[in-house]
Design goal:
The complex is a heterodimer.
Chain A: H1 23-54, H2 56-67, H3 69-96, H4 103-132
Chain B: H1 6-10, H2 21-47, H3 52-60, H4 62-90, H5 94-124
Classes of the chains: A mainly alpha, B mainly alpha.
């Protein structure tokens, strides 16, 4: 890599602090934050699968953690992050295809992402409470 | 001294020196993850609260095990590329950047391999 000292101080392109904060900027950051937090989610998935593979005792330890209030809270967070990242992914795929880039459409997609992820998380946990958490 | 023209040298590579391979792979794994994640959520709903033998039996059935492994491969790849992009964007120090990119690779491979090993072990009933 060439990291030569430039003899001329060239102007840098303006960055975040120059612009008015918009919702789509915040949501771009949220896509990254939820994506990063899902790394920890993958770690928990690995724990679950390894525990199931290891035996009854290891699985019991996992279940004990997952059923505790802190475990439930973490799983609630992961499920929201997953759904937020999933719906946000749809948004980026739509933009990659060149659609929905007009100001009004952009705003609509970003709002649909927030409302959709919260609604989907509530729906998922309602189903879990009704059918799952025996 | 290369005899190739500058255009010939950069064609298909772009400023990242490796072309659009990871950009494409990130989209491909994203699209693969959509049905796999929805299937995974249905699986989690149906497994929650079940006894250990029942969980093992369902996880070990061929269709579920194959879908789970596809989920793990798609997501470990997606995770590796995504985190690397974040590191490359925010970590300016070259040594720190290389270290973090390397650790990120180790993490993605370890997660992917551990999950697949666990699924296979459950499936083969050992």
């Amino acid at each position: 890599m060439t990291e030569a000292q430039s003899p001329v101080q060239r102007p840098l392109s303006p960055h975040l602090q120059i612009y008015r904060l918009t919702l789509s900027m915040v949501m771009s950051g949220m896509h990254r934050i939820t994506g990063l937090s899902l790394c920890a989610g993958m770690l928990m998935l690995t724990w679950w699968l390894l525990a199931a593979a290891a035996g009854q005792n290891a699985y019991g330890t996992f279940e004990g953690f997952a059923a505790s209030w802190i475990g439930r809270l973490i799983l609630l967070g992961f499920s929201w992050a997953l759904l937020h990242h999933l719906i946000g992914g749809f948004r980026y795929l739509i933009w990659d295809l060149g659609y929905g880039l007009e100001p009004a459409e952009r705003e609509w997609l970003v709002r649909a992402n927030i409302i959709g992820s919260i609604a989907a998380t509530i729906l998922l946990w309602l189903i879990l409470v009704m059918f799952g958490l025996r | 001294m290369s005899m190739r023209t500058p255009l010939g040298r950069v064609r298909g590579l772009g400023s990242a020196k490796s072309g659009t391979e990871e950009f494409w792979l990130q989209r491909m794994t994203a699209i693969a993850s959509i049905p796999l994640t929805l299937a995974g959520l249905v699986l989690v709903i149906s497994l929650t609260g079940r006894s250990y033998p029942a969980v093992r039996q369902i996880l070990g059935s061929p269709l579920i095990a194959v879908l789970m492994m596809l989920f793990v491969i798609a997501n470990a790849t997606h995770m590796k590329i995504g985190v690397q992009v974040v590191i490359e964007d925010y970590v300016y120090d070259k040594k720190k950047k290389l270290t973090l990119v390397m650790l990120n690779n180790f993490f993605a491979w370890a997660i992917g391999l551990a999950c697949i090993f666990a699924i296979l072990k459950i499936s083969f009933g050992v």
